[in-house]
Amino acid sequence: MTKQERIRNFSIIAHIDHGKSTLADRMLEVTGAVSERDMREQVLDDMDLERERGITIKASAVRMEYTAEDGETYELNLIDTPGHVDFSYEVSRALHACEGAVLLVDVSQGVEAQTVANAYMAVDEGLELVPVVSKVDLEQFDSQAVSEEMQETFDFVPEDVVFTSGKTGHGVEGLLEAVVAQVPPPAGDPEAPGQALIFDSEFDPHRGVIIYIRVFAGTIKQGDRIMMMATGKAFEVTEVGVFRPQRQAVEQLSAGEVGYLAAGIKDVKDSRVGDTVTSAERPAAQPLPGYREVRPMVFCGLYPADNAQYQALKDALDKFSLNDAAFRYEPETSTALGFGFRCGFLGLLHMEIAQERLEREYGLDLVATAPSVKYRVLKTDGEVLEIENPAQLPDPGEIEAIEEPVVAARITCPQQYVGPCMELSENCRGQFGKTDYRHSDRVIIEYKLPLAEIIVEYFDNLKSATRGYATLDYEPAGYQQADLVKVDIMVNGDPVDALAVVTHRQFAEKRGRAVIKKLRKVIPRQLFDVRLQASIGKRIIAAERIPPLRKDVIEKLYGGDVTRKRKLLEKQKAGKKRMKQIGSVEIPQEAFMSILRRD
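Below the sequence we write its predicted structure tokens.
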């Protein structure tokens, strides 16, 4: 048996919280990839944020060696993937580098929407699926019923389903045997011109860009001259290696293997995820098929709290986008916040994680504007605009119609919470689809919802309404026309572009009033009168006033002529009037955050 026939490349795919990372821990233990001394929970989740939140954010690769029942030692390359819908792009990239996937289903939850979505993604890639029921140590749940549900949904043969427990280690050896038996070895000629797909990368301040690759043909070793097929740039390989799970240098990577390479690449634009690495002396005839272009769903402005940090933010975004291929950004300017960037994300969790990583990993202090979605605007002259920033919306007189993005949402909840889920969805302008009553008291409710309504607090409210039992999955479902208006927030008559929001006309007054009331609480009192207004075009829909601070200018006067007091008070009054004309109001970060939190 050749070395290539003993390689197995596979991913673990599942819905969020179904136990992927815990099962991966047990696999590392059984194969001895991690010593007992170094073992900890969520070994492959090496980011602080992942460990704090208990979720996988980045797909992680690791090489294990396993001696199977046939006596042969196999090289198993595992790529652990995230489960949250916001990180589905990480999953699609991981699957591209594999021949098989372990499809994991939690015995207490059954087949969930993201399980189905990931399974279809794997089937589209032509991967062999290994069905697994996890958490079978939870005895109060019927693992056989979940096995039958997997058979109904995916046509699996019940005998092929592997029952495991990431907590106790039960069934892990059986799973590894199933991977060896069912996942095909990689194809590809080690003697052919080199072809390796970049599926991830990161920036090392000492060695430049570290590229994570899956080799499809040929061999790459230290000293080779390689070329990026998208840019034509050539580099000399300084190191190749594998993940165990830390990076470990090896002599070479040949067809079928997963690993990394360093080649002194300093410019992050020279190594893009989805590009093909080939030999500079003997290049491949054509690049490997890359990844589909990802389309951001949620947008917000990111600005440095101190404008002097603008260049530091630009450098950080360059390096961060290398490690997060779904992240998009471009420069923009705001009269309120100065120079910053308009950033695109796959969802609100993706946005939160990106902002937190930028602040932690690059030491930045950021101001984030309210999240918005991409609207389509049909102007009266026939022109169609795509608007990511509410401040860019044309004058109401020029607008013929506005279309907003909608999503097909699937809410899974226990039967007794169907009412609250439907009420919440109706309040968010949802269009009811259907209800599907599954076994074990679970109901799937389908709605078509405007994306703008669910990106803020819909999920939190859903969890509150169902005591944490509901799960939400959604996917883009195109655009639909709606009666939308732009609500401008003005401070002393000047619109604050960073606080402008697009909302449905029926919610405009309520939304504008809520924002103004919150601003009144968070903007500090000045020495002059501050007027806060919300408007649609030229029509004021809400107004508040922040009274000035009163400095006691006569506190040092004891008795004496009353005209002296009047003179000082008149002088103070004139000074406040002048200050009001030239005074600028500083809006704190809480004001921008307050617009996120709806009542």
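The chain is about 25% helix and 35% strand.
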